[in-house]
Write a structure and sequence with these properties.
The protein is of the alpha/beta class. The chain contains six helices and eight strands.
C-alpha cells in the first residue's frame, strides 16, 4: 500500500491525514479527497490508493478532528433517529464549510511544501458532505484549485448564505458534478438551480445524474454501492483531473 499517515497543523488544531503516493519519485500533481460523512476508513483508503495508482499524490484529511477521539459513524446509524440526529448536530457541525475552508488553507500550504508535489494547481473531489466542500474549495482558493468534482453531494443548493451554488461567481476551476436518482439531498430542482448558477457565472462544468445510482453509490462499503456507476465515476474523475493537471 502507498498509504502513510501524518498530521497537519491548522488554525483550529491538528488534523490527521492519510497520504497516498504513486510509485516512483515524482513530482506528481496533488489532489484532495474530501470525505463523506462516515469519515476516513478502509473504503476511502482504497479510493486514495486508486488515485495514487493513476499518478496523483492524494491527501485525505480527517475533517472530524475537532471532536477529538470519536467513535466512527456507520451506515447503520441512519436507521436510528437518535443516532442520526447526533450525527447531524455533532459531527457535521464541526465539519461545516467555514471550518473546512480554514483547514483547506493549511492543506494547500502542506502540499506546497512537498518537493514530490507538482505545483501549483491541485484537484479536489468530494462525496456526500464532501461534495459541497470540494466545490467550495474551488471558490475559496480559485488560484490553486483548477479542477473540482462532486459525487452524490448533498445540500449543494440551500437557502443558507453559504450554499455552494452561491459561490459560483468565485470559481475558475472546471467542475464535474454527478448526482444520484431520487436523492432528497440533491433534488432535480436543486440540480437545475445549480446548473443555472454555474452557467450564469460562466463556470465550465458538467452536471449529470447517474441513472440507477443511489445516494452514496461510490464507496465500496456503502449499502448502495454500484460497481458500474462507481467505475463511471472513476473514468469521469480522471478525465477531469488529467485534463487540468497533467498538461505539458
Amino acid at each position: 500500500m502507498s498509504r502513510t499517515t501524518g498530521q497537519i497543523k491548522t488554525a483550529d488544531g491538528t488534523c490527521p491525514v492519510s497520504i497516498f503516493r504513486p510509485e516512483g519519485s515524482g513530482p506528481w500533481p496533488a489532489v484532495i479527497l474530501y470525505m463523506d460523512g462516515l469519515g476516513p476508513r478502509p473504503a476511502l483508503f482504497d479510493m486514495g490508493e486508486r488515485m495514487a495508482a493513476h499518478g496523483y499524490y492524494a491527501l485525505l484529511p480527517d475533517l472530524f478532528y475537532r471532536l477529538g477521539a470519536y467513535e466512527p459513524p456507520t451506515f447503520s446509524m441512519f436507521n436510528d433517529p437518535e443516532k442520526r440526529q447526533i450525527f447531524f448536530t455533532k459531527f457535521l457541525g464541526t465539519a461545516n464549510q467555514a471550518n473546512v475552508m480554514r483547514d483547506t488553507r493549511a492543506f494547500l500550504d502542506f502540499l506546497s511544501a512537498q518537493p514530490e508535489v507538482k505545483q501549483p494547481g491541485v484537484g479536489t473531489t468530494g462525496y456526500c458532505m464532501g461534495g459541497g466542500l470540494s466545490l467550495a474549495a474551488a471558490a475559496f482558493y480559485p488560484d490553486r484549485v483548477v479542477a473540482a468534482a462532486s459525487y452524490h453531494g448533498g445540500r449543494l443548493v440551500t437557502d443558507a448564505p453559504d450554499s455552494p451554488h452561491l459561490l459560483a461567481p468565485r470559481i475558475k476551476a472546471r467542475l464535474y458534478i454527478a448526482g444520484a436518482v431520487e436523492d432528497p439531498t440533491f433534488s432535480d430542482e436543486a440540480k437545475q438551480k445549480l446548473g443555472e448558477a454555474l452557467t450564469t457565472a460562466g463556470v465550465r462544468h458538467t452536471l449529470v445524474t447517474y441513472e440507477g445510482a443511489r445516494h452514496s453509490w461510490v464507496p465500496g462499503d456503502s449499502p448502495v454501492y454500484n460497481p458500474a456507476a462507481a467505475e463511471k465515476h472513476w473514468t469521469a474523475l480522471f478525465e477531469l483531473w488529467d485534463g487540468a493537471l497533467k498538461k505539458g
